[in-house]
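Entry:
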Amino acid sequence: MIDGGRLNSPDNAVFDPIHNKFIAENERVAPDIEVRQDANSLHEGEDPQLERAVLELMQQLRVKKEIIVPPFNKPAKGKLT
């Protein structure tokens, strides 16, 4: 690599004998909410995923109005050894 970078390739995999398949490679985490992300929206300056996330958070804020911050522990006093 010209700029001092390097290229790595996976040299081991995790095999699940119960389901008889390799896991943890090329697997994705399934989203809680499916949101279509298309190139036209992004080109127009819109972000459908971000907009849906803000909508979900605003709905959650309507349900729970009071946020209670738990008290923090006081720092320990004394000499460090």
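The longest helix spans residues 48-63.
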